[in-house]
Amino acid sequence: MAEGVKKIPGKDDLARLESLRGLVSELHSQGKYQAAEEKSRKVVEWHEEFFVKDHPSTMLSVTNVATLLQCQGKSEAAEMMNRRALKAFEKTSGRDHLHTLAVVGNLVPVLRAQGKYEEAEKMARRALEGYEKTLGEGDENTLKSATNLACVLDSQGKFKAAAKMHLRALEGYEKVKGKDHPNTLSVVDSLSTVYRNQGKFEDAEKMNRRALEGRERSLGKEHPSTFTSRSKLGSVLIEQKKYKEAEGVIKQSLEGLEKVLGKGHPHTLAAMTQLGSVLSYQKKYEAAERTYDRSLKRHEEVLGKDHPQTLDAMIGLAMVLEEQGKNKKAEALSRKVYEKRKEVLGQDHPDTLLTGHYLEMQGLNGGEDAAAADANSSTTN
């Protein structure tokens, strides 16, 4: 009997495995992540029946469960599963094995979703350098690692570096997969976010509409990724002061995300914060306050009080309260966001600077060190 095998699977056992794998793939492609996770756990159980605990085949099935957990916004559980697999692969296959690098890459969006940007960047660079060395710059795994790194850089406010890395990945994907492949469209979608953060709103809208239309064709209008692209389009429309259109797009996205991903998924929560924003811009302050308040409470329950997305909802609520003359509560929330953003994101992060400037504009303390930090960071992004 081969090493690591507890017993030899029979013909019926192998047929059962293939059936489970087919179901997982089909459910995943349809965006039915919870159902896919349940079947994927059955695949893990199958491997544990026939192979030893840390066998590479078992660990690969574990990473598939982790991916489906991340798709549902269950980042902590996904991290735990990925770290289990990483530990096993480093032990059995080595740090530079392709299986090991795959798990390192899988950890990047998991850590980023939790606001652990420094560790996420470290993992992203490790995966990218490993794939470049082993497979070359044009390999799909290398391109995926470049995209992961770009997303982390964007979250850290390093927009120029993020755009450069995304464009590198986009060129590669278009050459390898074509312009309408889901992986290509994912890069297009992420690049639209970077352009929006840079204030290049026309470019952002162009990229966003390309991603949205492509996903509607390839994945369908009810797929989670399609709703996410539509939600991002709402953000771009807000920046261009197209508030009425933005409100309709965001409401449609929020309703869809609640249906397919659930009310507690990070993408759904982000869309709720966006809705508060567009209502506020239209001076619908009471509705905006209710929406922001609901978003903030859900963020704190799901992601925690210090998560960057939670702080986005909190500063939005503070601004709406200030517009209604509720200055004491608005000031308290604004100060809390500013201090937390300095701690979590760093004093030079664009979001921290914006909060400091908001405090300064309101005549509150906290703007002075933001202005100083702005002078130091203005040439970096």
Helix fraction?
Answer: over 70%
Helical/strand content category: mainly alpha
Tell me the Rg in angstroms. 22 Å
Task: Look at the structure and give the mean pLDDT.
Answer: 92
Total number of helices: 18
> Spans with pLDDT under 50 lasting ≥5 residues?
366-373
Beginning-to-end CA distance, first to last residue: 58 Å
- The portion of residues forming beta strands comes to under 5%
Task: Please give the number of β-strands.
Answer: 0
Helix and strand sequence: HHHHHHHHHHHHHHHHHH
Shape: globular
Tell me about the largest β-sheet.
none
Structure description:
The chain has helices spanning 11-29, 33-50, 56-71, 75-92, 98-113, 117-134, 140-155, 159-176, 182-197, 201-218, 224-239, 243-260, 266-281, 285-302, 308-323, 327-344, 350-361, 367-377. With 381 residues, the protein is mainly alpha-helical. It is globular, with a radius of gyration of 22 Å. The chain starts with 10 loop residues before the first helix and ends with a helix.
